[in-house]
Amino acid sequence: MSNPLVLVHPALPAFEGMLSGYAIAHLGDANAGDATAAVVVGSSGLANDLIAHLPKLKLIAALGVGIDGLDLDFIRARGIAVTNGRNINQDDVADVAIGLLIGVARRFPEGLRALYSDQWRPPIAVPPQRRLGGLKLGIVGMGAIGRAIARRAEAMLMEVAWTGPHPKPDLAQRYEPDLLKLAAWADVLALALPGGKATEKLIDAGVIAALGENGILINVARGAIIDEDALIAALRDGKLGGAGLDVFAVEPTPAARWADVPNVMLTPHLGGGTRESLLGASLNAIENLRRFFAGEGLLTPVG
């Protein structure tokens, strides 16, 4: 009996090397339509028209937490199960959020430019920076990543409040149902909410204006949540104090788009990309595959 056929999209050689006992296909391969399971990067997903050409598909296992690249209604209507790797990388993503916050508040990018361009003139290389302790941090989205950010921020003596679709009685941090009010209150606004159509350009010019000329915007969620043109305009016009971004509207983001944008620290979607979280996501997907082909209950089903 031949090994079960698994579609992997995009091609992930390191992960595929862990799939002993399975035959591997990629989109465009002659045998891809015979795959009964697929492993995908959740943020990239699998388009509906491609799924429609996979008539035998019964499982989509997303590597990592995000599944915003998948149309769950369409997929479920076709009787396809979905799994993801929740509770695997929230601490890693939160570390990046805090790193970006420190970098922007303490003006690390400006300091590096001064040092490498031989423009460091003691005693002060950059304009006065912000002290982290005492800052008011507003978190948009208080799932696993938002909670991990809050823990780190409170350890650094920041005051934390948050917003989301509904209050969560188990949280000690103050809930603010109005995003604009949270932005107006906050010194820093950190985004840790899901992507997708429902949150596209949620952070628009109005929210950015409420955060204000001294405010800092941090995004480790999805790039499309921010109106990126409005953000760049606000930074250039001095209407926003700074921004730290790990995700972008288009990835890879064009370098020229940010060449003359002040007070911004950028990282190339590092997020959950630690060795530990990538291994955890891989093992999670592999266990879901094993259970699927063994007819057992899935480890981390979505919904």
List keywords for this structure.
elongated; 31% helix; 303 residues; Rossmann fold
Summarize the structure.
The chain is an alpha/beta fold and 303 residues long. It contains ten helices and twelve strands. Helix content is 31%, strand content 16%.
Description:
It is built from ten helices and twelve strands. By secondary structure, it is an alpha/beta fold. It has two domains: 5-88 and 274-294, NAD(P)-binding Rossmann-like Domain (Rossmann fold, 3-Layer(aba) Sandwich); 90-266, Rossmann fold. Helix 4 crosses helix 6 and helix 7 (179-185) runs parallel beside helix 8. The model has no long low-confidence stretch (mean pLDDT 96).
Rounded to an integer, what's the Rg over CA atoms? 21 Å
Main sheet properties: 7 strands, parallel
Residue fraction in strands? 15-25%
Number of separate structural domains = 2
Element order: H for helix, E for strand: EHEEHEHEHHEHEEHEHEHEEH
* Model regions low in confidence, pLDDT < 50 over at least 5 residues: none
CATH superfamily of the largest domain: NAD(P)-binding Rossmann-like Domain
Note the total helix count. Answer: 10
Q: Span between N and C termini?
A: 33 Å
Q: What is the count of β-strands?
A: 12
Helix proportion: 25-40%
Helix-and-strand structural type:
alpha/beta
CATH topology of the largest domain: Rossmann fold
